[in-house]
Each structure stands twice: as C-alpha cells, then as structure tokens.
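ugh ok fine here u go
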Amino acid sequence: MLSFPLTSVREVIARGRTDAEANDGFRSPYYGLRPGKDEKPGLCLVGDHGVYLMSNGKLLDGAKPLVAYAEKCDPSTNDDWFDVKRRTFGGDDGVDFIDAEQLEVMMAGLPRGDIPSHRISSGIDAAHAYREVLITETPAPSRPPIPES
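structure:
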C-alpha cells in the first residue's frame, strides 16, 4: 500500500489549483492522448523514479510541479525504493489521476483520528489492477521530483 501524509496531499492539491489559476487551467495526465479528460482539479499518482503525488495545474515553461513522495518510495530517503515501487505500483512507469473534489469530500467527512483510504483503479497493469493509497496524519516534506540523469 502507498502511504501519503494528509498535509502533503492538501498542499499538492492547493498548489495545483494555484498553478491552474495563474496559468489558465489544468494539465491532462495523459500527455495529450485523451484531450479534455481529467483536466480538472486533482492529483496525479506517478510511478517512475519513486512513487509520488504530483500537482496538475498548468505550469510556465521550465516550472516544476509540487510533488509528495509515498512513504518508503522516495529515492532520496530509501535505498529500497524500487522494491517498494514494484510491489505497490508495478515495475513499469505510469500515471493515475485522482479527482481532488472526491478526495476532499472523503477527507473532510472522516472523524478526527481516522485514517482515510482511497482506492483507485489503474486499468493498465493486470498484476496491479488496483493501487491502494493511504492518507495519514504523519507530516512529510513535499519537493520537486528528482531529475532523471
């Protein structure tokens, strides 16, 4: 299971909205393959060099989105990140979209102290047809993705 701190999830959603307001909308997580689909407030669950949530507001050229790495799947803090990624996300890279409005309703409706869980379908990888995302109260830093070499 992939685990993300609640504070970081809220920061990534807020940054996406701020970027969208400043730069005329939201980015499609499908790189132009599905124009108009999921170009709304949300998070992109990304698996590549680690697994992280990424803001989806449109950006100026050269600007980087805000990301929050999954606990135990951050290459800068865990040498075993790839094993965690393979078990929880699959060995291939990919992107899943999580609608911010649905996620915020779920987070707001829980009594204090409960741990919200959001289950999404990837539809990409038969071995990992569902990826379970756990949002916790534990704080963790958000930072830009690690550049590929």
